[in-house]
Design brief:
The structure holds two protein chains of two kinds.
Chain A (H helix, E strand, L loop, with lengths): L13 H24 L2 H9 L1 H34 L5 H13 L2 H12 L4 H10 L7 H27 L2 H8 L4 H12 L1 H17 L2 H6 L10 H11 L1 H27 L3
Helix pairs in contact in A: 3-7, 3-10, 4-7, 5-6, 7-10, 8-9, 10-13, 12-13
Chain B lengths: L4 H4 L4 E7 L3 E7 L4 E5 L6 H9 L5 E6 L2 E2 L12 E4 L11 H11 L4 H14 L15 H13 L5 E5 L7 H16 L4 E5 L3 H7 L2 E6 L2 E6 L1 H6 L4 H7 L2 E5 L2 E5 L4 E4 L10 E12 L2 E7 L3 E6 L1 H7 L6 E6 L5 E3 L1
Parallel strand pairs in B: 3-8, 3-9, 6-7, 7-8
Antiparallel strand pairs in B: 1-2, 1-4, 4-5, 9-10, 11-12, 12-18, 13-17, 14-15, 14-17, 15-16
Classes of the chains: A mainly alpha, B alpha+beta.
Chain lengths: 267, 329
C-alpha cells in the first residue's frame, strides 16, 4: 500500500476537520445506537408476530409490484423523453422530476385529490364502476409507484442519453423498426441503467411512509406497511419499534452493498 | 417514366441531393458500379452518404433501381441501404454472428436461416472462427470485416462505405482492400466509397466523384480524374500540379518543375516566385512544397537541395516548360 495522501502538504486544517467530524457523527451515531439498543433477543420473536408478518408481507408485495410497474411503465416514458422530440418534452421531464422533491405527505394529498372518493378521477371511477381506491392495497401500490417512478425514469433516461442514438441509427439502416430496435438494441445497452433505476425505486418504495399513510391509511393487514407499523409501534412499544427498524436497516444496507459495485465506488 | 419501376428497374442510382448549407450534388451510377467519393475534410462526402441513407434532411430526389426514395420519402429502414460507418459501430452486446444476422432478422428472416447466412458471410471474409466473439474482443481489421459483412448480408441495393480503411494499420488496410475488391466485383448494387486514399479510388472504383466545398468538382473514370484533376486536393493526391486558368485547367508533373534562386528566363506565364514550405524525401528525389500563389510541388535532386539550400523558408523561383504542361477543359 502506498500512501495516497501527501503528508508533506501538512496537517488537515481544524476548520475542515471539526465540521466533518460533526457531520459524520450526525450520520453514524443514530444508526449505531439503534444497533446497540435493539433488543436482539426479541428479534426472531417479533419477526414471528402476525402484525409484523402482515406488514412485512405488504411492504414486500407493494415494493415488488412497484418495481414491476416502474419497469413496465417507466421504461417507455424514459425512452420517450430520451429519444422522441415532441412539444412539451422538457416540461414533461420537469414534471416527472417533481415528486423527487415533493414532501411525501403532499404527494399523498395530491393523490387523494386526484384519486380519492371525491377526487377528480376517483369520483368518476366510483360513479362508473363502484370502485374506490383509498385505503386499499391498490392505493398502497399507487402511492409507492408515484414516489418511486421518478427515480427509475430519470436513471433510465440518463442511461439512454448516455448510450446515445448512434446504435439506433445503425439498426434503422439494417431495416429494423423502432420497436425491434428498442427490444434488441436500445434496451440491452441501457440495462445497467435499468438495474440501477430499479434498485433505487425499490429502496424508495421500502421506506415509503408519508404518501402511503395519507392516501392509503394505516390498516393492519391491508395497508399497514413496515414504516407505518414502526411509526405506530414507537408510540406504545418503543423497543419493538427498534427491532422492526433494525429489519428495515438490514435490508437497506443489503441494497447499498448490492449497488456499491455499480456506482457508489469512488474512482 | 421514372416512377414506373417496371421499365426502369435495374438502372442503379440516380440522385440529386441538396442539403442546406452543406451539399449540392448530382450523381448517376449504373448497377454494379463502385463510385469513389473523394475530397478534403468537410467537403460533404459523409453528408452525401447520410443523405442517401435518409439520415439527414435533404431536398432533391433519389432513385435506386427505378424506385423513388424521395417521393414519398422512404424511412431509413425501408431504403435497403448497407451503411458501413467510419467507426464501425458494431452492436457491443451482440457477438459477430448476431451482428451480421441483425439485418436479416430485422427484415423477417427466421433465426436459423439468418444465422446460417451470417456465418456464411463471416466465412467469406475469412473470420468464421470469430463468430462468437463480441466486438470488444475483435481487432480493428476484424471488426471492420464484420461491419462490412453486416452491411452486405441483407443484400442492400445501395452500399455506402464511409472510409472503411481509416484507422487500420497499413498492412491490414491493404489486405482488406483486396478482399473488398473481390466482394464488390460480385455485388450487383451501386457502391459509394468515401476515401482519402488515391489508391482506393484507382484500385476499387469504376468512377470517381470529387466533392469540394459541397459541390461536385469532377466526376469521371479514375484514370481521367487522375490524369486531369480539377481540384488542388485531387492533384495533390495523385502527385500532380494543377492550375486553373479561366475555364481551363493546366497540369504538370513535379519532376518537370525547375527550381532556381534567380529569376529564370522564358515565358513569365509559367514561372512563379514563392517560399519553400516543406522538403521531404520522395523516392530518389526531394519533393518541395512551394507557396507560389498556387501551392506547387517540385521534385529536385538531393544534390540540388543541398547546393541551393532548399529548406523551409527559402525564397525560390519555380518554372516549367510550356511543352510539359497539359491543358484541358
Amino acid at each position: 500500500m502506498t500512501d495516497t495522501v501527501p503528508r508533506t502538504l501538512g496537517r488537515p486544517p481544524l476548520a475542515l476537520v471539526l465540521p466533518a467530524a460533526v457531520a459524520a457523527g450526525l450520520l453514524v451515531i443514530p444508526l449505531v445506537t439503534l444497533v446497540l439498543d435493539t433488543p436482539w433477543r426479541n428479534f426472531v420473536d417479533e419477526l414471528g408476530t402476525g402484525a409484523v408478518r402482515d406488514a412485512l408481507g405488504i411492504t414486500a408485495f407493494a415494493s415488488a409490484i412497484t418495481v414491476v410497474a416502474c419497469v413496465l411503465l417507466g421504461t417507455p416514458l424514459a425512452w420517450l423523453l430520451a429519444r422522441v422530440d415532441f412539444p412539451g418534452r422538457s416540461l414533461l421531464r420537469a414534471a416527472v422530476a417533481v415528486p423527487l422533491v415533493l414532501p411525501p405527505v403532499v404527494a399523498g394529498v395530491a393523490l387523494v385529490t386526484a384519486l380519492g372518493r371525491n377526487g377528480l378521477i376517483g369520483s368518476v371511477l366510483r360513479d362508473t364502476t363502484g370502485v374506490t381506491l383509498p385505503y386499499t392495497m391498490t392505493a398502497v401500490v399507487i402511492a409507492h409507484t408515484f414516489v418511486s417512478m421518478p427515480f427509475y425514469v430519470l436513471s433510465v433516461e440518463g442511461a439512454l442519453r448516455a448510450s446515445g442514438d448512434r446504435y439506433d441509427v445503425v439498426a434503422a439502416t439494417l431495416g429494423a423498426t423502432r420497436w425491434t430496435t428498442f427490444r434488441r438494441v436500445t434496451l440491452p445497452l441501457a440495462m445497467p441503467g435499468l438495474m440501477a433505476g430499479a434498485a433505487l425505486a425499490w429502496a424508495r418504495s421500502l421506506g415509503e411512509f408519508g404518501a402511503t399513510i395519507t392516501f392509503a391509511g394505516n390498516y393492519p393487514g391491508t395497508t399497514q406497511t413496515m414504516p407505518s407499523l414502526i411509526y405506530t409501534t414507537l408510540q406504545s412499544r418503543p423497543e419493538v419499534a427498534r427491532t422492526l427498524s433494525m429489519i428495515l436497516l438490514v435490508v437497506s444496507i443489503a441494497i447499498l452493498a448490492a449497488l456499491r459495485n455499480r456506482w457508489l465506488t469512488t474512482p | 417514366m421514372a416512377d414506373d419501376p417496371v421499365t426502369t428497374r435495374g438502372n442503379g442510382l440516380s440522385a440529386t441531393v441538396h442539403v442546406d448549407d452543406r451539399l449540392d450534388a448530382e450523381l448517376n451510377a449504373d448497377a454494379g458500379a463502385v463510385v469513389a467519393v473523394i475530397g478534403p475534410n468537410g467537403a460533404g462526402k459523409t453528408t452525401l452518404l447520410r443523405a442517401l441513407a435518409g439520415l439527414v434532411p435533404m431536398t432533391g430526389s433519389i432513385e435506386v433501381d427505378g424506385w423513388s426514395w424521395t417521393r414519398p420519402v422512404r424511412l431509413v429502414r425501408d431504403r435497403n441501404v448497407g451503411l458501413v460507418f467510419q467507426d464501425q459501430l458494431l452492436f457491443p452486446h451482440l457477438d459477430a454472428v448476431d451482428n451480421v444476422a441483425f439485418g436479416l432478422r430485422a427484415r423477417g428472416t427466421s433465426r436459423a436461416e439468418s444465422d446460417a447466412t451470417a456465418r456464411d458471410w463471416l466465412a467469406r471474409f475469412g473470420i468464421a472462427d470469430l463468430a462468437d466473439r463480441r466486438p470488444a474482443q475483435l481487432s480493428g481489421g476484424q471488426a471492420q470485416r464484420v461491419a462490412i459483412a453486416r452491411a452486405l448480408a441483407p443484400a442492400p441495393s445501395l452500399l455506402l462505405l464511409d472510409e472503411p480503411f481509416a484507422g487500420l494499420d497499413v498492412g491490414v488496410a491493404t489486405a482488406l482492400r483486396i478482399e473488398l475488391a473481390r466482394h464488390l466485383a460480385s455485388y450487383d448494387g451501386v457502391t459509394l466509397l468515401v476515401t482519402h486514399d488515391a489508391l482506393d479510388a484507382l484500385t476499387l472504383a469504376d468512377a470517381v466523384l470529387v466533392v469540394d466545398e459541397g459541390r461536385v468538382a469532377q466526376y469521371g473514370s479514375p484514370q481521367d480524374v487522375a490524369a486531369r484533376p480539377r481540384t488542388a486536393h485531387v492533384a495533390r493526391l495523385v502527385g500532380l500540379n494543377v492550375i486553373r486558368e479561366d475555364d481551363r485547367f493546366r497540369s504538370f508533373r513535379p519532376s518537370a518543375v525547375t527550381v532556381s534562386l534567380g529569376r529564370p528566363e522564358g515565358s513569365a506565364r509559367n514561372q512563379w516566385h514563392g517560399t519553400v514550405l516543406s522538403a521531404v524525401t520522395h523516392g530518389d528525389a526531394v519533393r518541395l512544397l512551394v507557396a507560389a500563389g498556387p501551392q506547387l510541388i517540385a521534385d529536385v535532386t538531393p544534390a540540388a537541395t543541398v547546393e541551393l539550400g532548399l529548406v523551409p523558408g527559402r525564397e525560390v523561383w519555380v518554372s516549367v516548360k510550356e511543352t510539359a504542361i497539359q491543358t484541358y477543359a
